[in-house]
């Protein structure tokens, strides 16, 4: 057994002050995201944890890539028949989390999820490399399969089938938009007195508060 009690890090790279933040959380997200994207210490700024609640009442978290964000929300793509897709079908609420340890920052987003329009899913699907399109078509995501070769054989079949034609987007694959109603920005600070600023949607306005660390 390893004792982890003394594994600590001092956070002191930045701070989060009310007089300097944006009044709209999407604009604050944009500023932080651009900083993370420009940092050589962050390999995938758009990698986010997506937590959903499954039928047994237990949350389940996995890493997903953010593909677009707008004033309306955050867009990612997945298989609608996957475990996350089924969880979202039963409970439209989810939590998205970004963690950029080298910047000593994290963002936690509570949101309602909706499927995006089919033509938008079509457009993104056909913008992907053909190998990724075929992978999405081949994989019965989250289902039990007999072995690895099962997928490899199906992939070869589809490669031959669509060698000279466009791969159609599977009906059960597409995008979700996570429409936020609460966004928390966390900035690490010395002595564990971290800065936590939370935006909460009330009617059409965002209420801004500071939380104790």
From TrEMBL:
rRNA-binding as UniProt keyword: no
Domain Pyridoxine 5'-phosphate oxidase dimerisation C-terminal intervals: 173-213
A molecular function GO annotation: pyridoxamine phosphate oxidase activity
Top enzyme class: oxidoreductase
Pathway assigned to this chain's UniProt record: Cofactor metabolism; pyridoxal 5'-phosphate salvage; pyridoxal 5'-phosphate from pyridoxamine 5'-phosphate: step 1/1; Cofactor metabolism; pyridoxal 5'-phosphate salvage; pyridoxal 5'-phosphate from pyridoxine 5'-phosphate: step 1/1
Cofactor note: Binds 1 FMN per subunit.
E.C. number: 1.4.3.5
Residue ranges of every copy of the Pyridoxamine 5'-phosphate oxidase N-terminal domain listed in the record: 41-160
Highest taxon of the lineage: Bacteria
UniProt xrefs under InterPro entries: Pyridox_Oxase, Pyridox_Oxase_CS, Pyridox_Oxase_N, Pyridoxamine_oxidase_dimer_C, Split_barrel_FMN-bd
PANTHER family membership: PYRIDOXINE-5'-PHOSPHATE OXIDASE, PYRIDOXINE-5-PHOSPHATE OXIDASE
Purpose: Catalyzes the oxidation of either pyridoxine 5'-phosphate (PNP) or pyridoxamine 5'-phosphate (PMP) into pyridoxal 5'-phosphate (PLP).
Subunit text: Homodimer.
Family label: Belongs to the pyridoxamine 5'-phosphate oxidase family.
Name of the molecule in the record: Pyridoxine/pyridoxamine 5'-phosphate oxidase
Species per Swiss-Prot/TrEMBL record: Chryseobacterium pyrolae
Gene that specifies this protein: pdxH
């Amino acid at each position: 057994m390893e004792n982890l009690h003394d594994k600590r890090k001092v956070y002191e790279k930045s701070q989060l002050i009310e007089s300097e933040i944006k009044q709209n959380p999407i604009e604050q997200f944009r500023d932080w995201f651009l900083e993370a994207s420009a940092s050589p210490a962050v390999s995938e700024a758009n990698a986010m944890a997506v937590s959903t609640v499954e039928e047994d009442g237990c949350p389940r978290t996995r890493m997903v890539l953010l593909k677009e964000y707008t004033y309306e929300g955050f867009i990612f793509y997945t298989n609608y028949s996957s475990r996350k897709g089924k969880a979202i079908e039963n409970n439209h609420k989810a939590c998205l989390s970004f963690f950029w340890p080298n910047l000593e920052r994290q963002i936690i987003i509570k949101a309602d999820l909706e499927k995006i329009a089919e033509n938008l899913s079509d457009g993104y699907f056909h913008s992907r490399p053909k190998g990724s399109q075929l992978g999405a078509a081949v994989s019965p995501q989250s289902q039990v399969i007999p072995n690895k070769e099962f997928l490899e054989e199906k992939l070869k079949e589809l490669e031959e089938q669509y060698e000279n034609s466009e791969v159609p987007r599977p009906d059960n694959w597409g995008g979700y938009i996570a429409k936020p109603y609460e966004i928390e920005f966390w900035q690490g600070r010395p002595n564990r007195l971290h800065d936590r600023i939370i935006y909460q949607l009330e009617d059409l306005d965002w209420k801004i508060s500071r939380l104790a660390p």
